[in-house]
Design a protein that fits this description.
Blueprint lengths: L34 H7 L14 E9 L12 E3 L8 E6 L14 E8 L6 E9 L4 E9 L4 E6 L2 E3 L33 E9 L4 E9 H23 L20 H18 L2 H16 L6 H18 L1 H4 L13 H14 L9 H6 L4 E3 L4 E3 L26 H15 L7 H22 L16 H11 L19 H6 L20 H14 L2 H12 L7 H8 L15 E4 L4 E5 L8 E6 L15 E6 L2 E3 L11 H7 L8 E3 L6 E3 L2 E3 L17 H4 L9 E7 L3 E7 L15 E8 L9 E8 L7 E7 L4 E2 L4 E5 L2 E4 L7 E7 L2 E9 L4 E6 L8 E4 L6 E5 L5 E5 L5 E5 L17 E6 L10 E11 L12 E4 L5 E6 L3 E6 L7 E6 L5 E4 L7 E9 L2 E8 L6 E3 L6 E3 L1
Parallel strand pairs: 40-42
Antiparallel strand pairs: 1-6, 1-9, 2-3, 3-4, 4-5, 6-7, 7-8, 9-10, 11-12, 13-14, 14-15, 15-16, 16-17, 18-25, 19-20, 21-22, 22-23, 23-24, 24-37, 25-36, 26-29, 27-28, 28-31, 29-30, 30-37, 31-36, 32-33, 34-35, 38-39, 39-40, 41-44, 42-46, 43-44, 43-45
Helix pairs in contact: 2-3, 2-4, 3-4, 3-5, 4-5, 5-7, 5-9, 7-9, 9-10, 13-14
């Protein structure tokens, strides 16, 4: 099939090219690895020869026997498998043979059995017992001619017979060969096998492995089963599959970029590790389908996958494709020549939709310059300091987010594969390297300076280590540090170390597709840190959490191939219990590294705003203890859906603040979305900003986290989200400042207690609403509840009554106490099965108003033609991306002052959140004592548990003095909002109602206390 694509790009010469930092390595393979990588892994794999010496032979091995782990299989085989329908033998654990741990003469029991197809009795069977945690030697031989089996354990013979035809001495030995042998090597998780040898009957060595481990063996069999499945599926698919109704692996035209690329990688890897022609044939069958696919098919998403896939097959199968001709149905010439041609044609293909073209992802909106000596952008794109008002081509707006990073990476894989034979592509490779160095990695260096990511945990996990490995493997070493190395890269694993919840999930920040702990992308981050810095915490986290959480281990094969490093180990307990990830604005706070029983508080206030997969969630938080208790809600069903635009990404779906203004319009282009009263984009902000535009002086910059302090007893942090809201609503300097105080192990409560103090300064006397999202219906002590319609219920608290709600979910429970506003209005909204008329719904496809339904979980205000507003439930589509739904949420609490504030008057919100084990009750639960104390106008004082005075500054400027009255003459003081590094004198004198306390700035001297550089002062 011919594709006349390249000729249209014969344009004028490009500007001078950037230079690569080192020459490209000669020879193949060079992408991500080299031949030595395959050679090093092969001996570690249980890749026994297909032809087994059925009539006679021997195996020998050394086993470091281990006790049964909870994740081990029942009666774990060591060699072969128990199978009455085959002629074969096995060595396996028998769990019931194991003696109790610690018993005198403790031993682990094994069975050696020879089976006859269709016979219920063994040909021969024996039990052996081995000591745990020591090396034991097992030798086993069989001879079908002499009818003898010889078993030796640590050199001592173990008797084994050979069954006769009828099981008596009156008949001859059965004729038997191991012609159905399953040649699998396995182990318990805590075991190791070394010096495995397979010999034929003549004593010739057929296979040997000096060292093997349990997980790698299990991974190999799982990997090969997946490969075999894909080979079979691809064989059943036609060369040009129909448009629909085919397995995903066959859909190379419009399918997933990841699946297209991964399939090529798996097939080529299987062949290089086994040498089995079956997998070479499978890889070439797949390549045939890639080669006949029109270059324009699927846009940049699918075509990028095809270019990367063809690059891997070209490079890893280079020696096998040079002279091999493609089938007539595919085209003319050799696989090598046609693959190189298709790579270039696909990069250059014009779909008619600019953003869907691969070359636009590389070059910006311009054509290519293609001659016999150059394949590149017509002009080098602008990498830095791009001026949007000029017409110069650039992809600078996509260095932070969007598809171009993946597209450029896939193009680079394709070009680096073919550059030896096609040196004309070198200029575009140099363009790609400049994008990495000055764009994609420069953006991550700013955003992920501590490892965090503004999009949260799902889209925050990326293949950065693999993409770096591409350049480091393909270019010659400079003799210095690895190419493109920077400190932030080894920190990318730390949000996942700090953010891991009780069940192996992570907080649902940003667009949240299902991201299991065992994901190979998370594994990459840990292995990248180990490779670059020998990080022991990352190594231990990878081994004991990432790998241990996997139900299937096939990903381990690629990980061992690309990152063949020894895993150092350092305890998680060597880390502090909180970490601030600057710029990305994540603060993760926990009370223990015992993940199953830990309280995890996530606070987010990013230093910039952008579109794509980031949400309008500044100054929001979530809390988890044995279950999500305070949630980041909504369902990630489809990017850009009505639910996504009107609820899921919006502030109303998060535990932050809303300030509703009926005159505000939330628009993008000619589309208007719900008015949730939250955060939004406003000119001159860009949805896809450049690095310069998110920097502190840029239009997309926010204040983000402005204070952070961590001690063993507490974490204090403060975020300023003022600039995330419309300037017509909030003071841009101090419109919404949230202070979070996480008390890790307070003496007055058995679990962590969190205090949240908000100050809000509105420009139009607009009231603020404080949000808390829950999975289940919150319970209160309000004497009555009034149904308001649209899934809204007013809790009928009386004046002066404590506002405390109880939230239960799974094994956890939380009490949320509203201290401020005084006599607050508390409303609960939601429910998935509301009675009566329920809530007005929105059409799943169009977002238009639909009939009423029982689902009221995602209600928002939608403006009507006459300017009025009605509540509508933003019904989600069925999600194919988010299978874990524990964070979707069903209820929210809305807390507001009983009356709107006076013009220019600040509002304050003060809440105390305490976790506990679920008591199994249905009514309100006990909460820690939290008493608001009389205080000066600039001081907010709270007495917690009758012991701790928690102080917050109600003013904008750091406080030189705080005054309050307490019933306690003593107690602990924890004051925030003070002048950093200043000295304060603390006094307490009897006064009406108790004791008058004063914390006043003073000259340095005896008896004074110095505040921290974050303006915090703790006095025991």
């Amino acid at each position: 099939m011919a594709h006349a694509v390249l000729g249209m790009f014969c344009l004028l010469a490009t500007s001078a090219m950037a230079q690569l930092p080192a020459p490209i390595k000669q020879g193949h393979p060079r992408l991500f690895l080299n031949q030595a990588s395959f050679d090093a892994l092969k001996p570690q794999l249980p890749n026994l020869p297909a032809a087994f010496p059925a009539a006679g032979g021997s195996i020998s091995l050394e086993l470091f026997a281990g006790r049964k782990d909870a994740l081990d299989s029942v009666n774990q085989p060591v060699f072969g498998e128990f199978s009455p329908s085959r002629n074969g033998f096995f060595i396996r654990h028998v769990d019931s043979y194991d003696s109790p741990a610690g018993a005198a003469g403790e031993s682990l029991g094994f069975q050696v059995g020879f089976q006859v197809n269709g016979l219920a009795q063994y040909l021969s069977v024996a039990r052996i017992d081995l000591k745990p945690d020591v090396w034991s030697n097992i030798q086993l031989s069989w001879n079908s001619q002499t009818h003898k089996i010889d078993l030796r354990v640590n050199g001592v013979a173990v008797p084994m017979g050979w069954r006769t035809v009828d099981g008596t001495g009156a008949t001859p030995p059965m004729e038997w060969k191991a012609d159905g042998q399953i040649s699998r090597i396995g182990m318990r998780r805590n075991e190791t096998v070394r010096n495995f040898r397979l010999l034929d009957g003549g004593g010739h060595e057929l296979w040997q492995a000096p060292a093997m481990d349990a997980l790698l063996s299990k991974a190999w069999y799982g990997f090969m089963e997946r490969v075999d499945g894909r080979v079979s599926t691809l064989q059943a698919c036609p060369l040009i599959p129909p448009a629909g109704g085919v397995p995903d692996v066959c859909n190379v035209a419009t399918g997933s970029r990841g699946t297209i690329y991964e399939t090529a990688q798996m097939l080529a890897m299987a062949y290089r590790l086994t040498g089995n022609a079956k997998y070479l044939d499978g890889a070439l069958n797949y390549l045939d389908k890639l080669l006949v696919t029109p270059p324009v098919a699927g846009g940049e998403w699918s075509s990028g996958g095809r270019v990367g896939a063809m690059g891997i097959l070209y490079d890893w199968l280079f020696a096998d494709t040079g002279a091999r001709a493609v089938p007539d149905a595919v085209g003319f010439g050799t696989y090598r020549d046609l693959t190189a041609q298709r790579i270039k044609e696909t990069i250059a293909a014009d779909t008619g939709k600019g953003h869907e073209n691969l070359f636009v992802s590389m070059c910006g909106y311009q054509q290519l310059y293609i001659t016999s000596t150059s394949f590149d952008c017509k002009k080098k794109p602008v990498y830095e300091q791009w001026d949007r008002s000029e017409s110069k081509p650039s992809i600078a707006g996509f260095y932070i987010s969007g598809h171009p990073f993946s597209a450029v990476n896939n193009v680079t894989v394709g070009l680096l594969a073919i550059v030896d034979e096609h040196p004309e592509v070198l200029p575009m490779i140099e363009t790609s390297y400049a994008h990495y160095e000055k764009g994609f990695l420069a953006a991550r260096a700013l955003i992920s300076v501590d490892g965090g990511h503004h999009m949260g945990f799902a889209y925050g996990v990326s293949s950065i280590p693999e993409r770096l490995l591409l350049w480091r493997s393909a270019l010659e070493s400079t003799g210095a540090a690895p190419l493109l190395q920077a400190d932030w890269q080894a920190r990318l694993i730390y949000p996942y170390i700090y953010g891991l919840r009780h069940d192996g999930s992570f907080p649902a920040s940003g667009d949240n597709f299902t991201t299991p702990l065992g994901s190979t992308l998370i594994g990459q981050l840990a292995l990248g840190a180990v490779t670059d810095t020998a990080d022991g915490v990352a190594g231990k986290f990878y081994r004991e959490h990432v790998v241990a959480s996997r139900s299937a281990h096939d990903a381990l094969i690629l990980e061992r191939l690309l990152w063949p490093v020894q895993l150092p180990a350092a305890p998680l307990e060597s880390l502090e219990l909180s970490r601030h990830f600057r710029t990305s604005g994540q603060v993760l706070m926990r009370d223990t590294w015992d993940y199953a029983n830990a309280t995890l508080l996530e606070f987010k206030s990013t230093s910039f705003i952008a579109e794509n997969h980031q949400h309008f969630d500044q100054n929001s938080f979530s809390l988890n203890y044995k279950a999500p208790l305070l949630l980041d809600t909504g369902l990630y069903e489809e990017y850009g859906s009505s639910h996504w635009w009107n609820y899921y990404t919006r502030s109303i779906a998060h535990n932050t603040l809303l300030i509703f203004d009926k005159n505000e319009r939330f628009t993008r282009g000619d589309r208007e979305f719900s008015n949730d009263g939250g955060q939004w984009f406003y000119a001159p902000r860009q949805g896809y900003p450049t690095i310069e535009e998110i920097s502190p002086a840029g239009p997309n910059a926010l204040d983000g986290i402005i204070r952070y302090e961590n001690t063993p007893q507490y974490t204090y942090t403060s975020g300023n989200a003022s600039k995330a809201y419309a300037s017509s609503k909030l003071d841009m300097a101090n419109g919404f400042v949230r202070n979070v105080l996480f008390l890790r192990s307070p003496s007055f409560w058995g679990k962590p207690v969190t205090v949240v103090f908000d100050s809000v300064r509105s420009k139009q006397a607009l009231p603020a609403t404080f949000l808390l999202h829950t999975a289940n219906d919150p319970v209160s002590g309000a004497p009555g509840v009034t149904a308001l319609g649209n899934g809204q219920y007013q809790l009928g608290y009386t004046a002066g009554q404590e506002r405390i709600v109880t939230i239960r979910n799974g094994g956890g429970m939380l009490t949320a106490q509203t201290i401020l506003p005084l006599n607050a209005s508390v409303r609960k909204v939601g429910g998935a099965q509301e009675g009566g008329n329920g809530c007005a719904q929105t059409d799943l496809e169009t977002g238009a108003v639909a009939a009423n339904g029982a689902d009221c979980r995602f209600t928002v205000r939608r403006r009507q033609a006459d300017g009025s507003y009605l509540w509508r439930n933003q019904t989600p589509l069925v999600s194919k991306q988010q299978s874990w739904t524990s964070d979707v949420g069903a209820w929210r609490l809305e807390v507001a002052a009983p009356a709107a504030p006076a013009l220019n008057a600040p509002e304050y919100f003060l809440h105390v959140l305490a976790v506990a084990d679920n008591d199994g009750g249905t009514g309100p639960a006990a909460a820690p004592s939290a008493i608001r104390l009389p205080a000066a106008a600039n001081t907010e004082a709270l007495l917690l548990g009758g012991q701790l005075h928690a102080l917050f500054n109600r003013e904008v400027a750091p406080a030189a003095r705080m005054d309050w009255v307490s019933t306690q003459a003593g107690g602990t003081i924890l004051a925030t909002g003070l002048k950093p590094g200043a000295h304060y004198a603390l006094t307490s004198v009897p006064a009406a109602g108790g004791y008058a306390w004063s914390l006043a700035e003073a000259a340095d001297g005896a008896g004074t206390h110095q505040s921290s550089d974050q303006g915090v002062l703790s006095i025991e």
